[in-house]
Structures are given as structure tokens and as C-alpha cells.
Amino acid sequence: MKKSIKILSICIPALIMIVFLSSYVERSGNNVREKEQRPNIILFVADDHGVDALGSYGNPVIKTPNLDKLAAEGTRFTNAYCTSASCAASRSVLLTGKYGHATGSYGHVHDYHHFSTYDSIKSLPILLEKAGYLTARIGKYHVAPETVYHFQTVLEANPRSTFEMAEKCESVLNSDKPFFLYFCTDDPHRGGPFKPADWKTPNNFGNKPEGYPGVKTIVYDPKDVLVPDFMPDTQQSREEIAQYYQSISRIDQGFGKLMEMLKKSGKDKNTIVIYISDNGMAFPGAKTTVYEPGIKLPCIIKDPFESKKGTVNNALISWVDMTPTILNMAGVPITKNEFQGRSFEKIIGEENPIGWDEINASHTFHEITMYYPMRVVRKGNYKLIWNIAYPLEYPFASDLWDSSTWQAVYRNKSEFYGKRKTQDFLHHPQFELFDLKNDPNEVNNLATNAKYATILNELKVKIREFQTKTNDPWLIMWGDHDSSLQGSGTHL
To answer: Given this model, what pLDDT does residue 489 score?
Structure first.
């Protein structure tokens, strides 16, 4: 009996200690994250940066050493997608975990466009603030209303100068509380004026002859740039891509400055850094489309708690997944069906995780004058686009129309725009089915090929299921005019 009591007197304190330690740490895969030291999170969002212009994504010309270092120390995703290749619409999804058609964020916010998110939506910064995080933003905002997308701290700097933006973040980086920093550049978006005096003049993409303080201006020779296959290889294209590259090299230097400051603060070992873009490069055939150059984007994540470094992840992920993922990283509990995306936090270190082979996209507007709803499903290597307003000519963003790249094609009445006939670029069929493995440039539409009828029908069903699940009003546009999502007309 005495021996039993002695054993219990040893075991009970040990059990108490085990329980205490298990409550102190949170395990995620092979990671151990201390709950009392919740990670800081930096979400760095570029404006119109495609996978075409990063060293770590295979471009040997562009100079992006700081972002390449992030990839070497973290995870580079090869199949990351925005849901709509339009700035405001994309950012609303990024910060809510819900598709724009489900939140009323159909297109642009500014000027007469005036699209706005429903007041009932709870955004990422609101949820993180409630969980005890300091939330701060700097640079491009482009979402509304402010009550839905509220940040506690708003920092001011020239959004074309990421170096200056980084310097303004010192107080946040040295915060006593865990922080969420939403760092959004205006680069490499096209710079105003969008319509040049001479149509042949390339847009400046925010570049200035005098440069920016703290930034070494890196100029690219148009003959050296890489022209993506979807674009025409013209002098105008090359000149504009050279300006685009220069803008991205400015982003890279500002990012490097931010990482330098983060290390100086001593917070680098407890800060998750995420680099993404809102949509693809600002050229016809990419931005505002749901073709791969418009929606397939860079995504690099460095999680100091992840043991694997320099990994490549081939999972299909989407910006609708970003809010639940960041909440998971922050240890904020989320409920089932709270978001339309899902967290990929547990598979960041994996190369080919199972069950991550399908994404959706949903585009309705860019500018208010650009009504052209499209719904997309990609399942494995097959991708189906439903062009709901296919009888209409494909609409142009005002800045893309005025670009010298497009004007050269338009004025010369060129038969082709890149690998696609110009007429096919302007007039889309109702359905476009592509085998991305064998046709990465999306020029061979299989939708009318009887051999692929089964795949076409399967993907049509998937799009319809996606619309139903995410409360898409455009569900009514199928041939049977399904009005099941139609409300009563009563204002709630």
C-alpha cells in the first residue's frame, strides 16, 4: 500500500506537468508553436504581379534577390490562384474567405464603380483584433466599407515606394502585442496617366526618372525581357515589360528593407511572412481575365516554425483560403462552414498533398462598364470557363485599352494577339475547356470536341454545385433559370 502511494506521489506531479506543457504548446504537423508567443503575421500584397516576373519562379532576367531569398527559406506554391483578376474584387476575397459574388464585392470600389461588401461580413482584421492582435495596414486599401475592413492602425507612405513604406512600419514591428501587418504596394500596377500623349509611349508603371529615396533604380533593356506566350512579341510589349520589371525590382528592395527591420526588431523568429499578388500582370490577356496569366499568381510563405526550407508545394490553393489559413496560424478557432475557403496551414511543408487538386474562380466586374461574368473550375489538369455573357464582346479595362501593347495590335489590325487570334480574344465562346498539361497556353478549346463530352459535363456540374454552395446569384443563368437563390424581395 505504501509502495502504491509512493508511486502515485511521483506520477501525479509528472502528469500535472505533462498536462501543463501540452496546454502551453500547439502542435501543427511537425511544428511546435508556443501559444503564449502567438506568431506575428505579415501579408505582403503586390498589385498586378504575375508568376512571369520573379527569379524564384524561373525568370533569369528580373532581379528579385530578396523575394528569391524568401522562397529559399520558405515554401513556394506553384498553383496559387486569385478568384478574380481584378484588384478590389480579389482583395475582398483575400480578407473575408468568401467569394465576391457572396459578399456583394462584384468589382471596383472607387469613383463611380461603388461596389461594397455587405455590412454583415466579418473580415480578417476584425477577427484578429478580437483575438488580441494589433492590426495595421499600409498602402493600397481598395475595399469598402471601412467598418467591415477596419484596421486599428493605418500607416501613411507613398505606396509606390516600398522602401518608404517599410520604414513607416517600425512601430508595428516593435509592438508589444502580436501583430498582423497588411502591407500593400501600388507597384507594379500601371501608372497614370493611363492614356499617353503618343500611343507608342510605354506606360511608366510608377517609375520615375529621379527614382525613389533608398532605392537603387534598376533599368531593363527591352531586348532582354521575356515576353510571355500569351502576348505579342512587339517593340511596344517589350518596352512596357521593361517598365514592369523595373517596378517589381523596386518592390523587391522595399521587401528587403522590411525584412531587415523585422530582423532588427528581434521578431523574425516568430513572424510568418506571406508574399502574394492580387492578380496577374496588367496586360491584355492577363489582368481582368480568368486565363492562367490573370489568376495564377506567386505565393511564397516563410513560417519560422516550419522545419522544411526551400520547398515547393504543388497544391491548388486559392485566395479564398487565405483568411482561414491565417486565422489557423494565429491560433484563432474557426467553425465549420464559417468560410467558403479552407485552411492550407497544415500542408504548407508538403510537396504534393492529397485532396488539393481543385479550385474555383468567379469574376463579374472590373470597372462598372465591364460586365462579363465568368465562372471557373479547375480539377486536376482540366479547366472549364463558363462565359455567362458570351454574346458580348470581351470588355477592356480602360488602362489596358490605352496601353501601347494593345494599341499596336489594334491599330495595325494584327491577326493574332500572342498565340490567340485577335478575334478569339475579343469574342469568347460560352464554354472553354482546356487541358492545361498539354495546352498550358489555353488555345485549344476542347468544349466542342465529342471526345471530351464526359469531362465537359462533369465540370459543368461542378461549377453549378460551386455556385449553389457559395450563394452565387448567377446560378439563375443556367438554361433552366434556377431561381432557388432568389430572395423574397423583403429587405432584412
So the answer is: 53
Task: Identify the active-site residue in 87, 169, 184, 299.
Answer: 87
pLDDT tens-digit profile of 436-477? 999 999 999 999 999 999 999 999 999 999 999 999 999 999
Mean pLDDT over each residue of the chain, to the nearest integer: 92
Residue whose grid cell is 534577390 = 65
* Count of beta carbons in the 10 Å neighbourhood of residue 79: 18
Our CA angle for 369, 371, 372, nearest 5°, is 145
Reply yes or no on whether 87 is catalytic.
yes
Query: The sheet that has 153-155: what strands, in order across it?
Result: 153-155, 134-139, 179-184, 40-46, 271-277, 296-302, 75-81, 311-318
Tell me which DSSP letter residue 22 carries: H
Domain locations in the chain as residue ranges: 39-477
Residue 163 phi, psi (nearest 5): -65, -50
Peptide bond before 391: cis, by omega within 30 degrees of 0? no
Rounded to the nearest 10 degrees, the angle between the axes of helix 235-265 and helix 65-73 is 60
Higher pLDDT, 366 or 226: 226
The highest-level CATH class for domain 39-477 is alpha beta
Distance, CA of 55 to CA of 50 (rounded, Å): 12
